[in-house]
Amino acid sequence: MKANHALTYLRQLCCSGLSKEVAITEFLKSLPMFIPSNSNTFSIGDIGLVPNYHLSGFDISDMVRIAPRIIADYHTSERQQRATAWFASHPTIHDPRIMEKSFYMTDLYNLIYRRYDMHHLLWVPVPLDGVSAGVLGMYRTPGQKPFDNKDQMQIMSLLRYLAHAYRANDTPCDVAPNSSSGMLIFNVNGTIQYQSPEARLLLEQARFPRIQIDMRQQDRLLAKLAELCGNLQRIFRGHDAPPPSHIHNGPNGQFMFRAYWLNGGESGPQNLIGMTVEHRQPLLLKILQAMRDIPLTPMQKEVGALLAQGVSFEQIGKRLSIKYTTVKDHVGKIYDKLEIRQRDELLPKLLADHH
């Protein structure tokens, strides 16, 4: 993908109105299209840069039990003071030995960074709201070249958009109709007895979209699923209880959990409870991803994304500060490229072509 198209996608993503964790997680995953990098992260902490939790552009579920302790141990007051002093006169840290001379001998590097090929790094502070501070982390493998001044200038141009994404409200959003699903089986005490491979992956995506310093927050979803099992039992005992279903929204999308008796409604201490989990991504994210991969101009991609959301020609023109006739011209070229004839065909075409 050309750099200007990748840059357009990253800007659109940050200004899309998607919740901050959805937008930032997708930003981290997509950043390598603009600046070669891998295993990118975004840490959020206090104004002293002491992290509270971390978002990542890669799967970190296998590290959530040990990573918080390692990260917390690394961020000593002495190291944070060195980082703060450095950032007072420099926009980035491009060499970790600035913060710790023996960085490549630390547990942080050897137990986490090496595991994900995070050797060369670029740490960039992102001012957020005066109370919280962010640090964008970009990484490259030992075989790649270190980040240079050009990389630093390119990422600095995106920081205001990343900060804008962080300030987005976590409002409910429409989800795409296509989904993936799996099956969990619990005992009557609410303990998982079996997970299909699909369910195991989905549960990890729902539980561990981020690394929390406070691990108690990571167990809230499991507690909620155990509560669903209890609700199901109370209903079948004749009591008033909420339906045994739960919608969980997070950086990886929406997860719907539904519980039911595996033996057709006869509860008992030896019986098992089945629970389906269904995953759907935010519809707007799917639209942006699909438009990103179509060979159109950046402006046509913006028009197409709004058109797929049902925005009128008049409103598209106002939002993008272009004439009505210009909107019509862009729409015609989008239809030609996708081989469709009308607006009603656009969204199904985008969702069908992008998996």
| Structural class computed from helices and strand pairing | alpha+beta
| CATH superfamily membership of the largest domain | Transcription factor LuxR-like, autoinducer-binding domain
* Backbone shape: flat
State the low-pLDDT regions, or none. none
Largest sheet: 5 strands, antiparallel
CATH third-level topology of the largest domain: Beta-Lactamase
How many helix segments?
14
| H-E string | HHEEHHHEEHHEEHEHEEEHHHHH
- Give the C-level CATH assignment of the largest domain: Alpha Beta
Helix content: 40-55%
Distance, first to last CA: 18 Å
Number of domains: 3
**DSSP E strands, number:** 10
For the CA atoms, what is the radius of gyration?
Answer: 23 Å
Protein name: Helix-turn-helix transcriptional regulator
Keywords: DNA-binding, Transcription, Transcription regulation
Domain HTH luxR-type: 293-350
Organism: Methylomonas defluvii
Walk me through this protein's architecture.
- With 355 residues, this protein is α+β, with helices and mostly antiparallel strands.
- It folds into three domains: 3-166, Beta-Lactamase (2-Layer Sandwich), CATH 3.30.450; 180-281, 2-Layer Sandwich (Beta-Lactamase), CATH 3.30.450; 294-353, Winged helix-like DNA-binding domain superfamily/Winged helix DNA-binding domain (Arc Repressor Mutant, subunit A, Orthogonal Bundle).
- The chain is 41% helix and 20% strand.
- The chain contains 14 helices and ten strands.
- It starts with a helix and ends with a helix.
